[in-house]
Design goal:
The chain has 489 residues and is an all-alpha fold. It contains 22 helices and three strands.
Amino acid sequence: MLSLVVYFRDMGWLLLCLLIAVYVAAFLLFKGKKDGASLVLIITCNALLLAWSSQDQFLHTWDEQFHALVAKNMVDKPFQPMLYETPLLPYDHENWTANHIWLHKQPLPLWGIAGSLAIFGNHPWAVRLPSCILILLATYIFWSLSRKWFGREVGFVASVLFSFNGLIIELASGRGATDHPDIFFMFFVLLAVFLAQKYAESRNLYINILCGIAIGAAVLCKWLPGLIVMPIWLILTSYGDPKEWRKLAPSFLLLIATTALVALPWQVYIHSWFPDEAAWEASMNRRHLTQVIEERGGGLLYHLWNLGRMLGELVYIPFAMFLYFFGLYRRNKVFQVTLIWAIIPLLFFSLVQTKMQAYLLFSFPAYFLMIAWSFMWLYHRSKRSKQGKLIIVLASLFLVLPARLCIERMKIMDHRERKPNYIEQIEDLKRLPRNTVIVDHPQAIQVMFFTDLVAYDYLPTPEKINDLIEMGYDVVVHDKSSLDERRDY
């Protein structure tokens, strides 16, 4: 039975056929005015993609293994983020891949992963589960928000785009750099925008407080870019009359205060208890603005051109269409906030010297809205045009190209090694006593995640090894051939 499950698990074509069938069923339900049932099927497709992509039984090198190990250590000590819980050998606190106190990321995603590990144990799928759950919740929130802003048709298309975006699925399953923190960040930004819209409709004090909490949570995921929600809140809640700004002031101050109460205590705490590490990470955040860090550079147009690799090569057409119609409907609030959500991050991170593909992830919902709105505009225009078939083909590519990118990113049609041999070797290390130190192991971080041992990816000097032995530790060299290369050992 197990072999049959493994066989079908790697049959990407079967997953592809199933997804096509379910998406078609979702469309038919939508056409039949059964929007709730249609949404359930869209979320089902999203869950299938996430489950397929999250089956790897190892931790991915960049950056999931570090997030996983720090989260594991936070299960017992949630306010002391540590990479090496027991740093037996000297370390450099400026090296985020091998230090002790680990402040390279804000804590909320790590707390989320730690909670999952505390419940389900130290499994790779438990590391990914919080991100997958947040994506499923985000699909519903985005569906509701996009329907409110642009109507049910745009809401359906935008939700479909969200559900099969390749980069989102890749990061939620830990396969891409920055992985889970960026997923958490996108979720809380989206939630905050959703709550801002709810507050604009209801003027309910408690919804405004919840919006501030969501913004603060976003800051605790990815720092200050989470404040993008502030101008969106101002536009959604204003009536266009300058006099109304005075009436908004108390609510806006409450929003700021709530955000600060959520986000600032952690910043004060780490600078008080871990001043060297906190100061270094703060300086690194500033250096990202003016310097290329870790060879992650790119030109001024890096993020603009990269949108085509993440959202479909024709994304620039909906972007241009939306900009053009904004000129006609500039007083339309949803046009304003959608463009703010998309353009401000694009402009800011284009000026930042260090570039990473996921920097714009939190603005993806805005691009999905632009694509979906443009798709529906072209669809309705095709009914009145002599070039209707050509227009339909063009509009269809807005969906087909992102779907192709999803298949390519997930490698659905490729056989993928889900459990490499080195994972079985690491599991064998669990039989060793807890006072064992593994050295010269290329997967040292994963060794510490899957076992309770301390591990290093290099061979210490004989003096350091003797020090460990004198401290009562057994030292095991993973690659004994490296001993032959050391004449002094």
